[in-house]
Amino acid sequence: MDLSELAFGGGGLDRADHLRGEADALRADPGSRALPIWRGRPLMAGTSGPGGDLHLELLAPDHPLITEHDPQWIFLGKQGDTPLFAADISVMPAYSHAADGGPGDPGMDMPAPPVGTLPGDARFPDLRAALAGLTPFESELAATARGILEWHRSHPFCAACGAQSAMDQAGWRRLCDACGRMHFPRTDPVVIMLVTSGNSVLLGRSPGWPEGMYSLLAGFMEPGETVSAAVAREVAEETGVRVGPAQILATQPWPFPASLMIGCWAEAESLEMTIDPAEIEDALWISREDLADVFAGTHPLIRRPRRGAIAQVLMKNWLAGTLPLGQTPAKGTGHG
Predict the structure, then answer these.
(1) Which residues on neighbouring strands pair with residue 111, listed in sequence order?
(2) How far is CA 36 from CA 88, 104, 112, in A?
(3) Which H or E element spans position 266?
(4) d(CA 155, CA 164)
(5) What pLDDT, in 10s, does the model give residues 37-53?
(6) What fold characterizes domain 188-320?
């Protein structure tokens, strides 16, 4: 199975958790580097779009872009002897690209373009726009930084007593001074399913997605479920299709905001669909030949999937016949 295009697949970041208590001293190291993050968007430079070459821009912690915008610091780990940090500078004001023709996504509110010692094309694009271009190490660094900062943003209060908690352990936990409770970053497991029936695969579409965007069915796991049980429940809830036992194929951290995508395969035991409009907008069976047109960009209805996402990787491997589709678990055993 070819996972070379799987973004956030792991790049060998040394998280150096034993050094989190020494983060302030490490940040003062002249060789340390920081990744500025603005409202969930890491600083990058290069060209975007098909064939683009966006890469992370790591700065010295005392760079004015960071120090002038009241940063919050996260110790990410080390690369060799280099301490690495995320610097949240979300207080930096935004401006409209549409108004002045600045770089980035047209019509999106973005911060003023960085100046001075930074490349002229440095900016804060949506991380999903760079999935195909980042190195494995860069993608792990960016996913870690975005995921943990989003957790801090969305969990400012103690779940035990309601008091405001504070960042602790170089960003890897929150501590409530009022009751002493410690809180740690969470990751939500999501099953995403390659559901097949002979020469066809099941695709779905959520409300609000861009025109022509279809993908594999997916949903959050519930307490007490095995992976296989979650696959069967989600497929049935959304489409009414019954599936056999599921086989785990690959996993992917997905920091939008903080999920672990568990890529599975299951064979359909029924083809008739009853779509739940509260769950999805549309679903359809598509043949292997039509999926080839989707990847070629020539399908009249469905747009090419986003490169780097686990759905794209699973579909591409199924199309190429490179999925490790061996023995599936006995019905009812699932995966723990």
Answers:
(1) 94
(2) 6, 16, 14
(3) strand 259-267
(4) 9
(5) 999 999 998 876 555 68
(6) Nucleoside Triphosphate Pyrophosphohydrolase (3.90.79)
